[in-house]
From TrEMBL, chain A:
Gene3D superfamilies (alphabetical): 2.40.50.100
Protein name as annotated: Glycine cleavage system H protein
GO-annotated cellular components: cytoplasm; glycine cleavage complex
Classification of source organism: Bacteria, Candidatus Aminicenantota, Candidatus Aminicenantia, Candidatus Aminicenantales, Candidatus Saccharicenantaceae
The gene coding this protein: gcvH
Family recorded in the similarity comment: Belongs to the GcvH family.
Keyword Signal among UniProt keywords: no
HAMAP family linked to this entry: GcvH
Any GO BP annotation: protein lipoylation
Cofactor(s) required for function per UniProt: (R)-lipoate
Cell division in keyword set: no
Residues bearing the modification N6-lipoyllysine: K62
UniProtKB/TrEMBL annotation, chain B:
Protein name according to UniProt: Aminomethyltransferase
Domain Aminomethyltransferase C-terminal: 282-360
Annotated substrate binding sites: E196
Organism: Candidatus Saccharicenans subterraneus
Function field: The glycine cleavage system catalyzes the degradation of glycine.
Subunit structure: The glycine cleavage system is composed of four proteins: P, T, L and H.
Domain GCVT N-terminal, first and last residues per copy: 7-263
Top-level taxonomy: Bacteria, Candidatus Aminicenantota, Candidatus Aminicenantia, Candidatus Aminicenantales, Candidatus Saccharicenantaceae
Length: 128, 364
């Protein structure tokens, strides 16, 4: 279910490493919890973020949730498709529903993140 | 946590379950937007068995109901339903509810909000003491299904011996649905045509499954509490605890149409009369958010450079496709078209008072 090539956080973001950059989104679990997403608050490129700092927010019919940066870095791009079709996050949370692209400041921070198997175990724990 | 008799059916259907008013209830199956639009354009089926059913019975049942409520239950003939409230002596809400007239003047069914059932039952019992009546809480024995939407009648008709075409809005009748004894009323909480089906049977899943089988080919969806909330808000139907409470009067809630001053005494009458005479200081109005963003309950509301209140209900409305909500505003800001601001986290969004209901179905 959860791709092996991604890193995961306890707040239900995923991170995909692409060279010196990282693509970040929210997990399938997170989008299911939120339900139909209708609005995404995106950051401007150039914004510098600390790890666990809010990148922006994702709003569904029934709730709003902040999205946190899994690692420190600078926003290189935000997924502008989401302005018109925010439900890409529901349809393809780990792919076309990506939220931002970051230039990673310190790759050692990746060690603080979970791999797919650990994230799945973490989710099982939440459901009990 | 309590479970309705349809709990297993929801889990089988893959519903996301949440706690609501002490019950484990389905919040959504396919998604709030799909479910909402199904009810507006086709039909939706809801389990609302968590609602409370209180029976007031005895020679003075009508007199008792008249004393407890502002609307005129004396106008009801058997088979008729009325929207009304349980009011405090201050003219505020203990709850809002439907009154079903089972027999004049001696038997009435009160259908109340799940979260308030115990409180309401205690209230009615206490206030009914001077009247020759019995008050019985029959909530646990009842299951309630709601079938709502433009196709509700054609989906239900093949399953019942009742002639639904003859049944007017806000009336009810006893009959069989899928072979099970039911009370069927042409009422709902969505702004659409539809039916609410009450039964004392232990196996209401038979009714649920028969309706789903009948309706699925026509686009019927099971609908959870999430879309129930967005549907009722588009139709500007009140939610107790959000829009009305024991802190808001019936007149402030803009429900003057359920207050019948001529009918005789009732709890809160004197206060409401005085309020009507002196004029309201604040009133519940509908708004739309003009900037991008969604106003949600308790977000602060600003007008004239100061905070004047907070949002009661607020959501994205899937059919009218706007961020809408309800708020009590000082009376000088309640004219249609008046602009004000809503604090959404670190921003202030512009909002405007607009006419309600936000959605009104076209009458055939």
């Amino acid at each position: 279910m959860y791709p092996d090539n991604l890193y995961y956080t306890k707040d239900h973001e995923w991170l995909k490493l692409e060279g010196e950059e990282a693509v970040v989104g929210i997990t399938d679990f997170a989008q299911k919890q939120l339900g139909d997403i209708i609005y995404v608050d995106l950051p401007q490129p150039g914004k510098v973020l600390e790890a666990r700092q809010a990148i922006g927010s994702v709003e569904s019919v029934k709730s709003v949730s902040d999205v946190y940066s899994p690692v420190s870095g600078e926003v290189v791009a935000a997924n502008s498709e989401l302005a018109q079709t925010p439900d890409l996050i529901n349809k393809d949370p780990h792919g076309q529903g990506w939220i931002v692209r970051l230039k990673i400041k310190d790759k050692s921070e990746l060690n603080n993140l979970m791999k797919a198997a650990d994230y799945e175990k973490y989710l099982e724990g939440l459901e009990h | 946590m309590k479970k309705t008799r349809l709990n297993a059916v929801h889990k089988e259907a893959g519903a996301r379950m949440v706690e609501f008013a002490g019950f484990e209830m389905p919040v959504e199956y396919k998604g709030i937007i799909d479910e909402h639009l199904a009810v507006r354009t086709r039909a939706g089926l809801f389990d609302v068995s968590h609602m409370g059913e209180i029976i007031v019975e005895g020679p003075e049942a009508l007199a008792c109901v008249q004393y407890l409520t502002p609307n005129d239950a004396g106008k009801l003939a058997p088979g008729q339903v009325q929207y009304t409230a349980l009011t405090t002596p201050e003219g505020t809400f203990v709850d809002d509810m439907l009154v079903y007239c089972l027999s004049v003047p001696d038997k009435y069914l009160l259908v109340v909000n799940a979260a308030n059932t115990d409180k309401d039952f205690a209230w009615v019992k206490e206030k009914a003491a001077p009247f020759r009546v019995f008050v019985v809480n029959r909530s646990d024995e009842h299951s309630q299904l709601a079938l709502q939407g433009p196709l509700a009648q054609e989906i239900l008709q093949p399953l019942t011996d009742l002639d639904l075409g003859q049944m007017k809005s806000f009336t009810f009748a006893f009959g069989k649905v899928a072979g099970i004894d039911c009370l069927v009323s042409r009422t709902g909480y969505t702004g659409e045509d539809g039916f609410e089906i009450y039964t004392l049977a232990q196996n209401p899943e038979v009714i649920w499954k028969a309706i789903m089988a009948q309706g699925t080919p026509r686009g019927l969806l099971p609908v959870g509490l999430g879309a129930r909330d967005t549907l009722r808000l588009e139709a500007k139907l009140m939610l107790y605890g959000n829009d009305i409470s024991d802190k808001t009067t019936v007149l402030e809630a803009d429900l003057k149409w359920i207050v019948k001053f001529q009918k005789g005494d009732f709890l809160g009458k004197a206060v409401l009369e005085k309020q009507l005479q002196e004029g309201l200081k604040r009133k519940l109005v509908g708004f739309e958010v003009l900037d991008k963003g969604i106003a949600r309950p308790h977000y602060p509301v600003f007008a004239g450079g100061r905070q004047v209140s907070e949002v009661c209900s607020g959501t994205f409305a899937p059919y009218v496709k706007k961020a809408i909500g309800l708020v009590y505003l000082p009376i000088e800001y309640t004219e249609i078209g008046t602009e004000f601001e809503i604090g959404v986290r670190d921003r202030k969004l512009k909002a405007r008072v607009i006419p309600t209901p936000f959605y009104k179905r076209e009458k055939k």
